[in-house]
Amino acid sequence: MSDFQGNDDFDEVIELTGDAGDVLKFIHIGTIEYKGGKYVFFQPAETEDDEEDDEVVVFAMGKENGEDVLLPIDDDDLMTEVYEEFMRLYDMEENENCSRNCNACNMCSTCPKCAKDIK
User: Fold this and answer.
1) What SS3 state is found at 85?
2) CA distances from 28 to 57, 58, 96, 112, 116 (A)
3) Which residues have CB under 8 Å from 82's CB, separation 6+?
4) What are the φ/ψ torsions at residue 14 (nearest 5 degrees)?
5) What is the mean pLDDT of each run of 10 residues along the chain (119 residues)?
6) Which of 26, 81, 87, 110 has the highest CB neighbour count under 10 A?
């Protein structure tokens, strides 16, 4: 079972230090627990001209010398699974106030309960 922890304070900028010592600014958009691991999702606080506004950066949460550290996810299949689970949980949270209370809709156009009413 997965657990979603969203971040409603999108004004808080977090600075992460890259491998080359460069400081990158991110906004924490959520954290999930998935298959025994904890995964943290960020969006760049400042986008470059060649970057998409909806870019998401994902790290695994680990421990090093008793402290929490962010680790890269090297397994492409795991990365895909974690991202899809995050999006599923994020969409559920975003749509929890759906007036139709189906908890499965995506703007009420793809939900089997809602789509038949829209046609």
Assistant:
1) helix
2) 10, 10, 21, 32, 37
3) 32, 34, 37, 39, 58, 73
4) -110, 135
5) 48 83 90 94 80 82 92 95 91 65 52 48
6) 26
Residue positions counted in the chain: 119
53 phi and psi angles, rounded to 5 deg: -70, -25
Q: Which residues of 52-91 are buried (b: 16+ CB within 10 A; e: fewer)?
A: eeeeeebbbeeeeeeeeeeeebeeeebeeebbebbeebbe
Q: Give DSSP secondary structure letters for 36-81.
A: TEEEEEEEESS--TTS-TT--EEEEEEEETTEEEEE----HHHHHH
3-state secondary structure of 83: helix
